[in-house]
């Protein structure tokens, strides 16, 4: 049904706006309208995958809906998005971070997103950088390919450090700036370590660099209600927990080689 509605809607747009004698809208303009409509539809479908209070008592129904929605999106990506434009627009608009594991697991064609991970992590909006980092880490865990590791090493891990140590007006970046972005991004690299245990030491090195750059909790003595202190404490805990998990993968690196050559 969704497929039929999609086709009918595209036809109506062409019929309403496109004429060979039009000086205002050409075929490219029409395709922009159609792509905007299609990505809006995909965004709305993904929003339906977010758990609601009513789903607590009917988890099976939510899982079934998620599978059907992801199957539909997969069909669009492989049949109606040959130039990957819809996939790119959708992921540059981003969606809820908590949906990334589901999307990676249930949409087989989602691997196409990795082709524009470098561009996504370079976007000026930090939230898009975080989205790109987490998407890359989850994709690497599912598809531990050598070329994915190269992209993660060149673009993804360095982006984490750039978020942690933003360049100031005087060009220095020696101070780690605590942020919710770091809270979201740091645990993602555990998935990267699971995919590539031999890359784990570099992740640990980045974690240690961030930990050294963070203010020590003792600097906030007497300021227990300070919101920055709460954020710093959260970051120290997340770093420790994530570091322990990455270390576990490093310890077993000689037993596992997931890289598909």
UniProtKB/TrEMBL annotation:
It comes from the Eukaryota. GO terms for biological process: snRNA 3'-end processing. It holds the Pfam family INTS2. GO terms for cellular component: integrator complex. This is Integrator complex subunit 2. It comes from Apophysomyces ossiformis. The lineage of its organism: Eukaryota, Fungi, Fungi incertae sedis, Mucoromycota, Mucoromycotina. The gene is INTS2.
């Amino acid at each position: 049904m969704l497929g039929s509605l999609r086709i009918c809607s595209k036809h109506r747009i062409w019929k309403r706006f496109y004429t060979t004698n039009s000086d205002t809208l050409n075929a490219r303009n029409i395709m922009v309208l159609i792509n905007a409509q299609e990505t809006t539809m995909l965004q709305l479908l993904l929003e339906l995958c977010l758990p609601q209070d009513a789903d607590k008592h009917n988890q099976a129904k939510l899982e079934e809906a998620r599978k059907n929605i992801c199957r539909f999106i997969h069909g669009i990506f492989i049949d109606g998005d040959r130039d990957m434009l819809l996939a790119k627009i959708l992921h540059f608009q981003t969606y809820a971070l908590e949906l990334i594991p589901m999307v990676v697991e249930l949409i087989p064609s989602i691997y196409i997103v990795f082709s524009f991970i470098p561009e996504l992590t370079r976007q000026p909006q930090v939230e898009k950088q975080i989205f790109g980092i987490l998407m890359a880490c989850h994709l690497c865990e599912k598809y531990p390919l050598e070329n994915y590791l190269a992209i993660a090493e060149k673009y993804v891990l360095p982006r984490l450090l750039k978020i942690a140590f933003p360049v100031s007006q005087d060009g220095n970046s020696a101070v780690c700036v605590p942020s919710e972005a770091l809270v979201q991004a740091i645990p993602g690299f555990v998935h990267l370590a699971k995919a590539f245990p031999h890359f784990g030491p570099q992740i640990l090195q980045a974690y240690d660099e961030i930990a050294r750059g963070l203010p020590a909790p003792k600097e906030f003595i007497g300021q227990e209600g300070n919101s920055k202190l709460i954020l710093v404490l959260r970051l120290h805990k997340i770093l420790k927990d994530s570091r322990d998990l990455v270390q576990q993968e490093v310890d077993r690196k000689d037993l596992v080689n997931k890289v598909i050559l």
